[in-house]
């Protein structure tokens, strides 16, 4: 099978035959929302109804075809319905759907593969069916390993919506994830370095990582009861706005953790499995965490996630009785194994690095040419553009974010920014031709919004 399977019959893209969302989308959505509640803001702002995904495209019920710039929600990273993944799942759907946590041939193969691709001795593994449960298991494992019970996470990190995970997650806006409840006892949050909005700077204006680390050390000594089991952190903040820490942050943090015998839980549910050009984003900084969580891209759409602990701590997984009903089902293992094999066979990591360079360069050009673009950042295919009212004050420009989102969607770009940050997570199989097409649509939409808000500077389109 060619690695460009997704280009077969791709035709004109985007291909819009009605206004969007079209009449059938609107009718179905209206019917659905009589019953389904708690939808995301993205769906409320653009109520389209999809019925097919193939490679880098999505087609709605009115027959409009969109370019996918979100991979579902950082999930279908190898393209919608990758033939190898679909075939692997359907084989086990016909042969063995569930076998509790007994060993199966496909599980045995997946475990060996994971031990091979993950760094260091990260090879004590358990499977789950969503990211938040993997994080929850990581919290329980960290307690079992350290016999300690306190956890430190960071402002604007996100780790899921169960009680332990939510206690490590952002709760600053209307307590969206906490239902107004307070964080579980023993869970703390600290600021983490955001190079665009630094709390502590050096004399030359660059971000001062050492001050963050010093603050954490003080906090461990003064703000806890001396029982910190782990830092729970995303390597890069996905929902927090595609915010990458400075390169020296995690190496310094790991040293601090080791000094106080605190574990580092690296939540790679969103950023792992190739999205930034490495199997783990943490590997960009040469850091091997103590516990890793994997999800989203791990099964390319099939609900399969994992928690991985270093070999010497594997016994902890016995103590917490780590297995579950659906984790590691044959279908789940087949999806994860096929996804890893596709990443290897199609040289996906290399594509992510190459096309990722294009994305970065193009976004830098957009920043130069547009007064409301305050910051651009990314690695590989995990990208963000931050919209501000004024480049000096950096005041977030939420209204512009919403409008850019809707305009680009109307032009045929399926994506999921939120608030003033345009977050992009295209399928990792995408080439520069379609990367450029998506960025053209986004830039055109930014320009239109600037015109509407009276930013009259004549912008030249950034060179592609
Ligand atoms: C970093 C991170 N961890 C955990 C989760 C929770 O994953 P799930 O939605 O599969 O429960 C998410 C979801 O977006 C995430 O981004």
What does this 3D model show about the protein?
- The chain is of the alpha/beta class.
- It is 36% helix and 15% strand.
- It has helices at 23-32, 41-45, 71-74, 83-95, 105-117, 131-146, 163-167, 209-222, 249-259, 315-319, 330-345, 348-369, 398-410, 432-452, and strands at 50-54, 57-60, 65-68, 122-128, 150-154, 187-190, 228-233, 263-267, 291-294, 305-310, 373-379, 382-387, 413-414, 421-424.
- The strands form 3 sheets. The protein has a 7-stranded mixed beta sheet, sandwiched between helices. Strands 1-2-3-13 form a 4-stranded mixed beta sheet.
- β7 (228-233), α9 and β8 (263-267) form a beta-alpha-beta unit.
- α5 packs across α11 and α8 runs parallel beside α9.
- It is globular and about 60 Å long.
- Residues 130-132, 135, 158-160, 234, 238-239, 267, 269-270, 295 line the site of pyridoxal-5'-phosphate.
Task: Explain briefly what this protein structure is.
With 464 residues, the protein is α/β, with parallel strands linked by helices. The protein is built from 14 helices and 14 strands.
Order of helices and strands: HHEEEHHHEHEHEHEHEEEHHHEEHEEH
Count helical runs: 14
Q: Mean pLDDT, rounded to whole units?
A: 95
**Rg (C-alpha, Å):** 22 Å
What composes the largest sheet?
7 strands, mixed
Low-confidence residue ranges: none
Oligomer state equals single chain
**Terminal Cα span:** 31 Å
Distinct compounds present: pyridoxal-5'-phosphate
Helix content: 25-40%
**Count of β-strands:** 14
- Widest sheet, order of strands: 4-10-9-8-7-5-6
What proportion strand? 5-15%
What is the overall silhouette?
A: globular
| Broad structural category | alpha/beta
